[in-house]
Amino acid sequence: MLLIYSYAVAKVKAKETHPRAFLPALFFMIVVTTVEWIPALRIDEREWIMLMIVPLLAVNTYQLLTLHKIVGFNEGPSEHQSKQIKKGSFCCPLIDWIEFNFAGDNNSVTVTNLKSSPFLP
Length: 121
Fold this sequence. Notes:
The chain is of the alpha+beta class. 56% of the residues lie in helices and 18% in strands. The protein has two domains: 2-71, no CATH class; 79-115, no CATH class. It is built from four helices and three strands; from the N terminus they run ααααβββ. It starts with a helix and ends in a 6-residue tail after the last strand. The relative contact order is 0.10.
C-alpha cells in the first residue's frame, strides 16, 4: 500500500516540477514515512498502525507537493533573469559581512563593501 501510494505521489511531483524529481520524491515518501511510522509498527497493533499511517501519508504528501510552490521553483533561469545582477550578502567567520554583486553572464563575484571583523588587524 505504501509503495503504490508513494509511486503515485512521486509521479504527481515529477509532473508538477521536473521528471528528475520522481526518484527523490519516491525516496522521501517511502523512507521518511517508514521512519516516522516506526513507533506504531513497534506496538504491533492494527489500530495504531492504521491510526498513524493516514496522517503521515497526508502530511508527507502535502509537504512534498507544496514545497516547490513555497520556495518558488522554476526549471531554470530565464534570459531576463540571467542578465540581471543579483545583490546579496553572506556571513564569513573572520569577516562580519561581505556585500557582493553576482553577475549571471560570466559567473563573477565583485566585493562592493567589506566590513572588517575584530578578529582581523
